[in-house]
Amino acid sequence: MRNPNIVILGAGYGGIMTAVKLQKSLGANDANVTLVNKHSYHYQTTWLHENAAGTLHHDRTRIQIKDVINTSKVNFVQDTVTDIKPEVKKVLLEGGELSYDYLVIGLGFEAATFGISGLKENAFTINSINSARMIRQHIEYNFAKYNNEAEKKQERLNIVVGGAGFTGIEFVGELANRIPELCKEYDIPREKVRIINVEAAPTALPGFDPELVEYAMNSLEARGVEFKIGAMIKEVTENKLVFEKDEQREEIETNTVVWAAGVRGNSLVEKAGFEANRGRIPVGEDLRPEGYDDVFIVGDCALIMNEETDRPYPPTAQIAIQQAEQTAANLTRLIRGEDHLEPFEPDLKGTVASLGHNDAIGVVFDDKKLFGWSATAMKKIIDNRYLLKLGGVPLVLKKGKLNFFH
Ligand code: FAD
Ligand code: NAD
């Protein structure tokens, strides 16, 4: 009898952790495990805002897949998935196709643009190494261009960030650190540059602890970030952003809009025919969509409900990693012929968000609030713990954030 084929799509938090766990729990003769990813590297999405602002080089964020995968146990295919065909148990790639007995989908998120006019064409999003690198270079290009034109254009120096959720807030925190450096480098007075964060809800970080939200806004405003709260973005063009606040239409002239105002699951998964809810696929407690016993979905493509609040759990790396560990354990059971799968129960440790390199906010262990240095240190501990799980001490030493005083 041939070995079953396990195919894992995407090497984000969910996909790569499933592969790393399977290479430990399965023997080479138990199954053929194949990991498919667009790039030769895994990246830590949770650091991309730093790469986009230019406060951290993207090579710190990416990890070569062959450095953490044992290629004698897991076959790595660098290719782009174009279609998933669950009815014939096949995955189509740009360069070929794969058949599976078990499929793990971990293709991550894409921006939700809510049909806003001009957004797709004119705004940047923070969702990959390539997109982060483009934002960094675009900002620098505009700073360089500013002093090379006879007519000084303010739109080159206005940076607008759409959404004050965690991504938007973390990104403006990095910009607040980076912009003074860029001003020095390009001979631009700091007061000429505007960093504007536009949020539709009545508060930044809606739903988060109000005391910490106030702390975050004070910290960011003190470093030159402007907030437009209760302001709904309506349109983006090449050189302006339009929003509505108190039923008034307002415009900001800008060449740089970074959209951080919502995510959805990768559209390939919806296209495959699974029933979807805003691009995320509802899965049962074994992380399989109803009617598909051979498909597991992990990370941002999966929708799981919090029974206590009757709302979906937010898509986070924390949950993606735990789902991967659970899925690898359940796949191992299936391969060994057991039919009882363990249910997935998220074990939420808290939320910590950076506000630049030396400030942060967080709530951990249910209700312990952190801010300032202790929150910054906690964020580094969380990041290093992930690297330890993924590649042991050598990976922490190579890519970790080990300087707790900067
Ligand atoms: P991803 O990490 O998005 O990975 C998907 C992978 O699939 C990528 O490697 C991609 O290249 C690959 N892929 C996509 N399409 C294809 C294709 N067609 N073919 C082949 N490969 C493909 N969460 C937290 O818990 N804590 C945080 O501090 C935190 N900070 C964040 C900061 C930022 C700036 C952002 C944007 C998000 C943050 N999140 C955080 C959320 C977290 O990053 C996501 O929930 C997490 O990345 C989801 O993991 P994933 O494995 O589902 O997908
Ligand atoms: P989000 O959906 O959490 O926040 C988007 C924000 O944009 C919301 O506040 C929303 O009100 C606002 N918005 C939506 N439409 C708008 C419009 N037209 N105009 C102005 N504002 C608008 O998205 P996110 O911040 O990208 O986070 C995505 C996921 O990643 C979440 O689950 C989040 O918890 C997670 N994340 C976690 C961290 C962390 O833990 N440090 C950091 C980043 C992201």
From TrEMBL:
Cofactor: FAD
Cited InterPro entries: FAD/NAD-bd_sf (IPR036188), FAD/NAD-binding_dom (IPR023753), NADH-Q_oxidoreductase (IPR051169)
Alphabetized Pfam families for the sequence: Pyr_redox_2
GO biological process: aerobic electron transport chain
Keyword vocabulary terms for this entry: FAD, Flavoprotein, Oxidoreductase
UniProt cross-references to SUPFAM superfamilies, sorted A to Z: FAD/NAD(P)-binding domain
Highest taxon of source: Bacteria
The FAD/NAD(P)-binding domain, residue ranges: 5-324
GO MF annotation terms: NAD(P)H dehydrogenase (quinone) activity
Family: Belongs to the NADH dehydrogenase family.
UniProt-recorded name of the protein: NADH dehydrogenase-like protein YumB
Organism, as annotated: Halobacillus faecis
Name of the gene this protein is made from: yumB
